[in-house]
Protein 1
Amino acid sequence: MRIFFVTGNEAKFREASSVLKEFGIDLLIDKSHKKVEIQSDNLEDIVSNALQGICSDNVSDYYVVEDDGLFINRLNGFPGPYSSYVYKTIGLTGILKLMNDIDDRTAYFKSVVGLCGPKVGIKLFTGVVSGRIAMEPRGTEGFGFDPIFIPEGYDKTFAELGIGIKNRLSHRARAFKSLGNWLLNNL
Ligand code: ITT
């Protein structure tokens, strides 16, 4: 089966398509629909709302959208749903500055993936990976906050570990795996 991923982020698309390939699902990038993002501190609401703008009653294809956030515990979950904006404005350096003098550097990434399509309505799948914020950016692979995120059980950042390991543990891999399992059992 094939599914369209409505996203402007090709790195997200590459990671997600490699996960779904293992389920025999072809993921195609869809740049013709727009992912309309409401402002909310809840990723699930952002995803559900975006899907309502994509899937009408007589939709004939399956679509997914995904919204993510990096949640830093001692910053009360900041940047969370504002991660994209914070990445573009203060960036990695800004986040590291906010973490100066903070000992507890624990954080997690959360992904919410939403599916809509014929007879499906809207289904949501989530994935979380815990870890900590590095002292400085390290590594060249991946995208976004990967150079400053060290997943639990490792000493290297996602940008150092590379996509092979990232795709075994990441928030995105977990959310898309649960989508893949659901599709295998229900469609
Ligand atoms: P869409 O077009 O799909 O919305 P986006 O890049 O705007 O793509 P999100 O709003 O879902 O993506 O993600 C928010 C930001 O969080 C994103 O721009 C990255 O900076 C960061 N992020 C998300 N997933 C990440 C990951 O796996 N590794 C590092 N940073 C990530």
Note: The beta strands are 2-6, 26-30, 62-72, 79-80, 106-117, 121-133, 149-151.
Protein 2
Amino acid sequence: MLTLGVLASGRGSNFQSIIDSIESGYLKATVSVLITDKSDAYAVERAKKHNIEALVLKPKDFADRNAYYSQVAGALKKRGVELVILAGFMRVAGKPLIDEYRNKIMNIHPALLPSFPGLHGQKQAVDYGVKISGCTVHFVDEGMDTGPIIVQAAVPAYHDDTEETLSERILLQEHKVFPYAIRLYSEGRLSVEGRKVIVRGDMKNSCIINPPL
Ligand code: GAR
């Protein structure tokens, strides 16, 4: 049984998809804590509903980024977290967290990286006029959305898409690929070699147009 710690800043629909995947038996894991940087994040309500501890840690209450991320890493360690999930956590992870959980932090990003990193990935894709967009689950390194890619899912992007319509289409895929990537990890099927993530057993499934669920 894999112990997860989830970091989220907002609505928490990806957090919910992970909870649902655990409850349906798709994921053999447990979430020991939700950490948020926003006390009014809806993710907190979701945690409460499912008896998951919710911890609010705000950067402004700490001397600097290092102090903040040391506290976050310590809180995760204390609760036995083995894999850290950034589910709509709108901050760049700090060094103390990355050092403690090297290649054990996963982030989901609403674009096909390395295109459109950072905030508003979907709007960047709409404004650029791409014909295919999607989402990426990757391990977190020191950069902004630069870590080794685990799984990507593609969706069409239409000329009349808005940020909202494209986001909605991508989000449906996010809710499938994130649990899928965590499942690959929990089955011991992922290893990192330089920039590349090797998916053992089923190479085809890390490039997803119709996610296998
Ligand atoms: C998701 O679309 C996620 O990919 C994105 O924020 C949204 C959170 O939604 N993350 C980023 O943009 C990180 N750079 P949720 O709170 O409903 O899961």
Note: The chain has six helices and ten strands.
